[in-house]
Amino acid sequence: MLEQFIYFCKMNFSSKLLEDAVNEFSKLPGVGQKTALRLVLHLLGREKEEVTHFGNSIIRLRQEIKHCTVCHNISDLDVCEICRSNKREKEVICVVEDTRDVMAIENTSQYFGAYHVLGGLISPMDGIGPSDLFIDSLVQRVATTEVKEIILALSATMEGDTTIFYLYKKLKDFQVPITTIARGIAFGGELEYADEITLGRSIVTRVPYETAMK
Amino acid sequence: MLEQFIYFCKMNFSSKLLEDAVNEFSKLPGVGQKTALRLVLHLLGREKEEVTHFGNSIIRLRQEIKHCTVCHNISDLDVCEICRSNKREKEVICVVEDTRDVMAIENTSQYFGAYHVLGGLISPMDGIGPSDLFIDSLVQRVATTEVKEIILALSATMEGDTTIFYLYKKLKDFQVPITTIARGIAFGGELEYADEITLGRSIVTRVPYETAMK
Questions:
Q1: Which residues on B lie below 8 Å from A74 (Cβ)?
Q2: What is the CATH number of the domain that holds B16?
Q3: Is B105 a domain residue?
Q4: Which of A116, B2, B60, B166 could form a disulfide with A104 if both were Cys (CB 3.0 to 4.6 A apart)?
Q5: Other residues' Cβ atoms within 10 Å of the Cβ of residue A45
Q6: In this structure, are residues A153 and A103 in contact, taking their beta carbons and an 8 Å threshold?
Q7: Are A91 and A177 members of one domain?
Q8: Given an 8 Å threshold on Cβ–Cβ distance, is A58 in contact with B55?
Q9: A58 and B61: CB-CB below 8 Å?
Q10: CA distance linking residue B201 with residue B158, whole number of Å
């Protein structure tokens, strides 16, 4: 195909509908005009019903999806499945950044408590302050329900650490144990390639072999 | 984010709507489950009206788009803009694989004739034979209208060459000049990295300097 010629200039679309769809696709993160055109031409080659279903699933997603009123995770109902389940230990709250982290932790099958989705991390660089996140509702939740432990499972980045520090200050007066997930050398990680901070912290926070074996 | 944990196991979606949208996105070429989830979460953060417009643009694209009855290019009307224009030289037909190639050639601003979109290339490996392409309608067009030149602008691949050979056999009896676009060293290309076939052909088909200057 001669399409590689396209990239250096504006595209000449033969159809308004085509142009519209390509423009919409290229608003997605990581999708440029060329990729958008490829996706749109792919859709044109698919069955009408399939493509209509695709379009409707996008519209319904945005219009009908809800956020759990307890933990703010994405949900089809007002209260999500985890918050409704009576098999989960509601007194343990794992605080995460977004729904992807809930999915990641659920996939480990190692956690049986509840969640609290913040909806982001404190990041002054991006203009995100504590009031933009679901921090007040977390404080409310800890104040009004019985909580045995708060696990802060946030990313090990500057924003994550800032958020952890802010949450710690807000929550420490409730006399509830606050923990963070362990930082250290990942499984399969080689010591010689680990950065000094990680390696240093993993020595300081070393655990008895019997604990690590579990 | 902890999302990198996800990739090795099935995703646990907290919502059916979310799962449905992620599955639909991951049917697109080059989009896996993780990318699909990223795109869907991006859409959830956008305005409702914007996302509805996106969904509708996809549905309308597939349901309302037409192919020009003359050249088979994608079009909003029964006959495309190029075929309707009286500024274009209708007696010259440039035969291309698909609409992307039309866009690429239009972008060069060097061609002022009409097009004929084949809709693919002959490729026995993929089960695409001459009858799957708009070849008969091209022969019809050459037989019934006045044609001064047929330019075969197909990719320099095995499939492209096969298609060119097939078209040549079908069209040669009409006494119309048949040309192919020039093969050679691309602009910015260095001789030492060019393959032998391209370099060899570019020596055999060398052009007078005055012609190359134009």
A1: 14-15, 18, 44
A2: 1.10.8.420
A3: yes
A4: B2
A5: 9
A6: no
A7: yes
A8: yes
A9: no
A10: 16
Spell out a b/e string for A49-83, using b for 16 or more CB atoms within 10 Å of the CB, else e: eebbebbbbbbebbeebebbebbbbbbbeeebbbb
- Nearest Cα residue to A92 out of A163, A142, A161: A142
Query: Do B50 and B104 share a domain, yes or no?
Result: no
Taking contacts as CB-CB distances below 8 angstroms, the residues of chain A near B79 are none
Whether residues B163 and B133 fall in one domain: yes
Question: Mean pLDDT over all residues of chain B?
Answer: 88
Q: How far is A74 from chain B (nearest CA, A)?
A: 6
Q: How far is CA A195 from CA A51, A192, A200, in A?
A: 48, 8, 8
Query: Is B81 part of a structural domain of the chain?
Result: no
Q: Which domain holds residue B186?
A: 182-214
Number of domains composing chain B:
3
My answer on whether B107 and B159 are in the same domain is: yes
User: Which residue of chain A comes nearest to B2, CA vs CA?
Assistant: A101
Whether B155 and B214 share a structural domain: no
Report the residue from A1, A16, A58 with minimal CB separation from B54. A58
Q: What is the pLDDT along chain A (214 residues), one digit of tens a residue?
A: 555 544 444 677 888 999 999 999 999 999 999 899 999 999 998 999 999 999 999 999 999 999 999 999 999 889 999 999 999 999 999 999 999 899 989 888 889 999 999 999 999 999 999 999 999 999 999 999 999 999 999 998 899 999 999 999 999 899 899 999 888 888 888 888 888 888 888 888 888 887 777 6
Question: Measured between CA atoms, how close is A3 to chain B, in angstroms?
Answer: 6
Same domain? For A26 and A112 the reply is no
The closest CB to that of A74, out of B14, B38, B58, belongs to B14
Q: Judge if ipTM > 0.90.
A: no
